[in-house]
C-alpha cells in the first residue's frame, strides 16, 4: 500500500512539473529572466573639428584623474593610480562632451575653452 501511495504521489508531482514547463513553452512571451539592452556607443568622426580640438590628455589633479581623448574617437580614463580604469568612446555636440563608457555609463562635461573641460568630478585642464 505504501509503495502504491508513493508511486501515485510521484506521478502527480511529475505531472505538475511538466505542466508548468509546457505552459512556459506555450507562451513565447514568457521569460524567466529579464533581458538587458545595450545601447550602441557613439560613432565619432575622427575628422570632426570639435573632436579634433579636444584630442589629447586632460587632468584633474585633485582627483588623480587623467582623461586621454584619442584620435580614433575612443577615450581612456586613469583614476587614482589605476591605469586604463575605464574606456569607451566620446562624442562632442556643441559645448558638450559625452564619455560613453564600455561599462554602459555616460559622463557628460562642458567644453569651457580650448584648455578646460568641466565635469561633475571636477574641472579638467589640458596637459601640455
Tell me what you see in this structure:
This protein is of the alpha+beta class and 128 residues long. Helix content is 24%, strand content 38%. It is built from two helices and eight strands; from the N terminus they run ααββββββββ. An eight-stranded antiparallel barrel has the order 1-2-3-4-5-6-7-8. The longest helix is centred in the N-terminal third of the chain and has 25 residues, at 2-26. The chain is globular, with a radius of gyration of 27 Å. Mean pLDDT is 77; it is low at 1-25 and 28-39.
> How are helices and strands ordered from N to C?
HHEEEEEEEE
What is the topology, as strand order, of the major beta sheet?
A: 1-2-3-4-5-6-7-8
| Count of discrete alpha- or pi-helical segments spanning 4 or more residues | 2
Helix content: 10-25%
Compute the average pLDDT.
77
Strand portion: 35-45%
Whole-number radius of gyration?
27 Å
Task: Work out the number of β strands.
Answer: 8
Any low-confidence stretches, pLDDT <50, length ≥5?
Answer: 1-25, 28-39
Globally, the shape reads: globular
Q: Termini separation (Å)? A: 90 Å
How would a textbook summarize the main sheet? 8 strands, antiparallel, barrel
**Which structural class fits the helix and strand makeup?**
alpha+beta
Brief account:
The chain is an alpha+beta fold and 128 residues long.
Please supply descriptive tags for the structure shown above.
128 residues; alpha+beta; eight-stranded antiparallel β-barrel; 2 helices; globular
Task: Map the helices and strands.
Layout: H1 2-26, H2 49-54, E1 56-60, E2 65-69, E3 74-79, E4 82-93, E5 96-101, E6 106-113, E7 116-118, E8 123-126
Antiparallel strand pairs: 1-2, 1-8, 2-3, 3-4, 4-5, 5-6, 6-7, 7-8
Amino acid at each position: 500500500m505504501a509503495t502504491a501511495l508513493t508511486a501515485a504521489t510521484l506521478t502527480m508531482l511529475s505531472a505538475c512539473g511538466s505542466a508548468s514547463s509546457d505552459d512556459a513553452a506555450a507562451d513565447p512571451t514568457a521569460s524567466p529572466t529579464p533581458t538587458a539592452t545595450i545601447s550602441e556607443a557613439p560613432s565619432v568622426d575622427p575628422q570632426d573639428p570639435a573632436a579634433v580640438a579636444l584630442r589629447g590628455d586632460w587632468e584633474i589633479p585633485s582627483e588623480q584623474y587623467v582623461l586621454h581623448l584619442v584620435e580614433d574617437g575612443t577615450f581612456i580614463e586613469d583614476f587614482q593610480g589605476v591605469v586604463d580604469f575605464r574606456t569607451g568612446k566620446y562624442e562632442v555636440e556643441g559645448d558638450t562632451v559625452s564619455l560613453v563608457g564600455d561599462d554602459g555609463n555616460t559622463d557628460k562635461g562642458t567644453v569651457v575653452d580650448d584648455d578646460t573641460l568641466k565635469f561633475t568630478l571636477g574641472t579638467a585642464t589640458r596637459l601640455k
